[in-house]
Amino acid sequence: MKKNENYERLQMFFHGYAEDFRRWRRAHEAEVFDTAAEAGIETSLKVGDKVTFTNSYGVKFPGHRILGFCKTDEYGRCVFLDVDCYRITFRPESLTLEESR
Q: What tens digit of pLDDT does each residue of 48-66 get?
């Protein structure tokens, strides 16, 4: 199997987390926002944007969608992504826009 085919299969796997996030969000309505402004964050990122996450080691993880925003925590994290642990948040500075919705 080619490298690109593996990547595409992996992306299909990640898309299942958006529905899980929606179910989790219902129990946390007061903590999750649809816009960065509602969460008190200054960023041009929006729900539905496709982004690349870059971790602290410089490793890039492309192809994730923004699912929502929350108030910034003590580490500067406030963006929910469609990843397997959708309840954790990411810093806007660690995200690079791939395409906007």
A: 999 999 999 999 999 999 9
Provide DSSP, 69-82: E----TTS--EEES
Quote the DSSP letter at residue 85. T
CB 90 within 8 A of CB 79: yes
| pTM (two decimals) | 0.79
CA 101 distance to own-chain centroid: 14
In this predicted structure, the answer to whether residue 6 has a pLDDT above a threshold of 70 is no
Helices (H), strands (E): how many in the chain? 2, 5
Using an 8 Å Cβ cutoff, are 96 and 80 in contact?
Answer: no
**Length of the chain in residues, anyone?**
101
CB 48 within 8 A of CB 82: no
